[in-house]
Amino acid sequence: MLLLDPSWFDSLGPVCSPSESTGPRSPDEQRMLRRKISNRESARRCRVRKRRRFEELRTESDRLMSLNRDLANRAGSMSHRCLLFRHENRRLRLESASLGRRLSELRQLILLRRVLTAARGGLIHEQALASLMT
Questions:
Q1: Mind listing the pLDDT tens digit for each residue in 106-126?
Q2: What is the chain's percent helix, strand, coil content, to nearest 5?
Q3: How far apart are the first and last CA of the chain?
């Protein structure tokens, strides 16, 4: 059983009887009471608005963080694909240069074969000689 110090009750202040709390009040007291009630209700509405706004901001923050993660993932994927395309383009350019050199060599061989064929037959054409010069 808990024992309380009697002086503790004195610190609570005067206790109003039910008839005093609901009895007639002066107009100033009534106005102050209405004002107090209005202020409390206004503060309650303000807290509700703040809570609602906080939740809206939290939801928006979560949405933006998720969007940011998605965009970062997409950017990483695009960066990787870009690197693959650069390697493929470099390989294709090297292959194109190699094939261009090979084509040039084959054209020279064809031209040389024509010239040699014409020379063996005793028909050296001016056109064949001119093509050797270019």
A1: 999 999 988 888 777 655 555
A2: 85, 0, 15
A3: 120
The residue whose two tokens read 């294709």 is 92
Q: What is Dmax (Cα atoms) for the chain?
A: 143
Q: How far is CA 122 from CA 4, 125, 133, in A?
A: 138, 9, 20
Which residues have a Cβ under 8 Å from the Cβ of 128 and sit 6 or more positions away? 111, 114, 115, 118
Amino acid occupying residue 49: R
Q: What are phi and psi of 51, to 5 degrees?
A: -60, -45
| pTM recorded for the entire structure | 0.50
For the stretch 3-14, what's the b/e string if a residue is b when 16 or more beta carbons lie within 10 angstroms of its beta carbon? eeeeeeeeeeee
Q: What is the pLDDT of residues 43-90, one digit of tens each?
A: 999 999 999 999 999 999 999 999 999 999 999 999 999 999 999 999
